[in-house]
């Protein structure tokens, strides 16, 4: 049995360049043309952790170039695993999983790295991973992950900011189990599905998450020889196998990036087309776009064109686990509904602290009142450009979208959030005709004039 794995810790985040840089947007430019959607961040990250289940070559395609992906590469490489990203291809070989320590400061900045505990425990019979801790949008507890691993026979201790999991028993192999989730957590479903692929016997995950990224991870594991059925439903069954084999897999397009561009088209009353898109992945988003008056037509099985309306109707939104309305699109729709002709109520049920963009949208003239996890958005005739600060990944996208529709100049800072999840956002928007530019610092942003 290989040595146990240790990952340890230092929460201080260095002030990166993107903390000082800013995006300058000159609003009111109609968009037009076509935008290509990148691979899905939330699939790429977990599929990369899934490759640690296999001791042979894994090639993962359509991987976006994002800060989070780079961080995951750094963490995986610090574990002694071969990993290399060339363009949108990541090659990995986890024949060796060393005991090297991953730099805590990177682990603490990437929650998804916690999902590593599943594959490492399944491969090594032991793992120590820093607790991911909370983030801007919520406490983000992990008790469902821990509960599931304990059900599969692991002894899990939480101490000194670390989660230390060890598989008891002579062969130190996880055991299949029946696991019911009190909440259909995406991460817990993914962690335990991965752990179960190499476990002894059958595991049944009940009230499991049904997100497209969960299905993509299952398909990746199945392509390596895993026995998984029911991914995409609320009951997933995994029959453990002794080992997995090499794979060449292409991940799904990013439905949240696609949704963000659709909202950018709707708020600027612009006709744009997007591809590749998987139709089913956007059902709830397209339904809400129809309710605000925007039409969409499929020009090809994976290509969507948005036909904007002259006015934006109000509508109510409640975020829910898939196939409900995605919490990762809540902020973007709040920006859109800020310009609607009436009142909308947005209820955030998935994360307890995901309304921090309200204050920044108010700075741009939006009329929004918050009551608990509800935001009451009263539409205004126009937004005005302002200096605003991104507070998390999707909040930053909402501010870009509001800036595209606002009168005058918007300056957005806190871009380290945006860079975590949107690949080449400025060039993609510039290609659609947006007047948007990234500058090195605030002074440059103040001085920049994009009217010409
Ligand atoms: C994934 O996070 C995504 N991240 C999130 O995207 C997304 O918002 C979320 O799923 C919901 O769709 C990645 O895939 C890397 P959860 P995850 O476990 O897995 C609670 C973005 O913007 N919970 O489904 O962490 C939890 O606190 C990001 O790209 C527990 O209580 O989400 C939250 O309130 C943000 N106990 C809710 O469940 C647990 O053990 C949903 O969390 C686990 C979760």
What does this structure look like?
The structure is a single chain. The chain has 452 residues and is of the alpha+beta class. The protein has 2 domains: 7-38 and 253-447, Enolpyruvate transferase domain (UDP-n-acetylglucosamine1-carboxyvinyl-transferase, Chain, Alpha-beta prism); 41-250, Enolpyruvate transferase domain (UDP-n-acetylglucosamine1-carboxyvinyl-transferase, Chain), CATH 3.65.10. The chain is built from 16 helices and 23 strands. The chain has helices spanning 17-20, 41-50, 67-78, 104-107, 117-124, 143-151, 186-197, 212-223, 255-267, 283-291, 330-337, 357-363, 393-405, 415-421, 425-431, 442-447, and strands at residues 22-26, 32-36, 57-61, 82-86, 89-93, 126-130, 154-159, 162-167, 178-180, 202-206, 227-229, 235-239, 247-250, 271-275, 295-300, 303-307, 317-318, 343-347, 367-371, 374-378, 387-389, 409-413, 435-439. Strands 21-22-1-23 form a 4-stranded mixed sheet. β9 (178-180), α7 and β10 (202-206) form a beta-alpha-beta unit. The radius of gyration is 22 Å and the shape is globular. The structure holds ligand EPZ.
Number of domains: 2
Biggest β-sheet strands, sense, barrel: 4 strands, mixed
* Class inferred from helices and paired strands: alpha+beta
Q: In percent terms, what proportion of residues is strand?
A: 15-25%
Q: Return Rg in Å.
A: 22 Å
Which hetero compounds are present in the coordinates?
Answer: ligand EPZ
- CATH homologous superfamily of the largest domain? Enolpyruvate transferase domain
Spans of at least 5 consecutive residues with low confidence: 1-15
The CA-CA distance between the termini, in Å, is: 66 Å
What is the mean pLDDT? Answer: 93
Provide a count of the helices. 16
What is the strand tally?
23
Q: Which fold name corresponds to the CATH topology of the largest domain?
A: UDP-n-acetylglucosamine1-carboxyvinyl-transferase, Chain
The CATH class designation of the largest domain is Alpha Beta
Mind telling me which CATH architecture of the largest domain this is? Alpha-beta prism
How would the global form be characterised?
A: globular
What proportion of the residues is helical, as a percent range? 25-40%
Enumerate the strands of the largest sheet in spatial order, edge to edge or round the barrel: 21-22-1-23
Function: Cell wall formation. Adds enolpyruvyl to UDP-N-acetylglucosamine.
Main location: cytoplasm
Coiled coil: 422-449
Catalytic activity: phosphoenolpyruvate + UDP-N-acetyl-alpha-D-glucosamine = UDP-N-acetyl-3-O-(1-carboxyvinyl)-alpha-D-glucosamine + phosphate
């Amino acid at each position: 049995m290989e040595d146990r794995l240790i990952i340890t810790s230092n929460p201080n985040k260095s002030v990166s360049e993107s903390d000082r840089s800013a995006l300058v947007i000159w609003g009111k430019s109609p968009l037009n043309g076509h935008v290509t959607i990148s691979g899905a961040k939330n699939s790429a990250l977990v599929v990369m952790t899934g490759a640690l289940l296999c001791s042979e070559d894994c090639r993962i395609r359509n991987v976006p170039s994002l800060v989070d992906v780079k961080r995951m590469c750094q963490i995986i490489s610090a574990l002694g695993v071969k990993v290399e990203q060339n363009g949108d291809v990541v090659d990995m070989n986890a024949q060796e999983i060393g005991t090297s320590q991953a730099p805590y400061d990177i682990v603490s900045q990437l929650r998804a790295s916690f999902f590593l505990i599943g594959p490492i425990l399944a491969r090594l019979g032991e793992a120590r991973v820093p607790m991911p801790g909370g983030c801007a949008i919520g406490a983000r507890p992990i008790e469902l992950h821990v509960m599931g691993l304990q059900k599969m026979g692991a002894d899990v201790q939480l101490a000194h900011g670390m989660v230390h999991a060890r598989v008891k028993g002579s062969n130190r192999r996880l055991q299949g189990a029946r696991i019911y989730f009190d909440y259909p957590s995406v991460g817990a479903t993914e962690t335990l599905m991965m752990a179960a692929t190499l476990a002894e016997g059958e595991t049944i995950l009940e009230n499991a998450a049904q997100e497209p990224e969960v299905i993509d991870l299952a398909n990746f594991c199945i392509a390596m020889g895993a026995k998984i059925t029911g991914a995409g439903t609320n009951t997933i069954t995994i029959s453990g196998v002794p080992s997995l084999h090499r794979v060449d897999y292409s991940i799904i397009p990013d439905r949240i990036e696609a949704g963000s561009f659709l909202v950018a088209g709707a708020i600027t009353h612009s006709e744009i087309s997007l591809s590749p898109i998987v139709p089913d992945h956007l059902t709830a988003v397209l339904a809400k776009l129809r309710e605000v008056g925007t039409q969409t037509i499929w020009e090809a099985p994976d290509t969507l064109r948005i036909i904007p309306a002259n006015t934006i109707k109000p509508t109510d939104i409640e975020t829910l686990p898939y196939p409900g309305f995605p919490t990762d699109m809540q902020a973007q729709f709040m920006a859109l509904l800020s310009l609607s002709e009436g009142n909308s109520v947005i209820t955030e049920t998935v994360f307890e602290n995901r309304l921090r963009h309200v204050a920044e949208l108010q700075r741009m003239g939006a009329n929004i009142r918050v009551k608990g996890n509800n935001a009451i958005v009263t539409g205004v005739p126009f937004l005005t450009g302002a200096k605003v600060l991104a507070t998390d990944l999707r909040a930053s996208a909402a501010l870009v979208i509001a800036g595209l529709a606002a009168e005058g100049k918007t300056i957005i800072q806190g871009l380290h959030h945006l860079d975590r999840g949107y690949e080449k956002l400025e060039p993609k928007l510039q290609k659609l005709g947006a007047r948007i530019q990234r500058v090195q610092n605030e002074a440059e942003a103040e001085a920049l004039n994009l009217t010409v």
